[in-house]
Amino acid sequence: MTPIKTEVTSAHLFHHPYNTMSSQEKQGFRKHFLAIVGV
User: Fold this and answer.
1) Is the pLDDT of residue 11 over 60?
2) Which residue, among 33, 5, 29, has the nearest Cα to 18 in the 3D structure?
3) d(CA 22, CA 5)
4) For residues 2 and 37, is the Cβ–Cβ distance under 8 A?
5) Helix-, strand-, coil-residue percentages of the chain, each rounded to 5
């Protein structure tokens, strides 16, 4: 289980939309991404 690596991966794969998200949206996105990955 590597949260930091997952963060980097999610930020890389969704670079542009991720950078335009608000903090609240980013938090929800991380939860959604982790749910998809199954971590």
Assistant:
1) no
2) 29
3) 21
4) no
5) 80, 0, 20
Report the mean per-residue pLDDT for the chain: 69
pTM as predicted: 0.35
Decide if pLDDT at 35 tops 80: yes
Query: Is the predicted pLDDT of residue 33 greater than 70, yes or no?
Result: yes
Q: Are 5 and 34 in contact (CB under 8 A)?
A: no
DSSP 1-39: --HHHHHHHHHHHTHHHHHHS-HHHHHHHHHHHHHHHT-
The token pair at 2 is: 């590597």
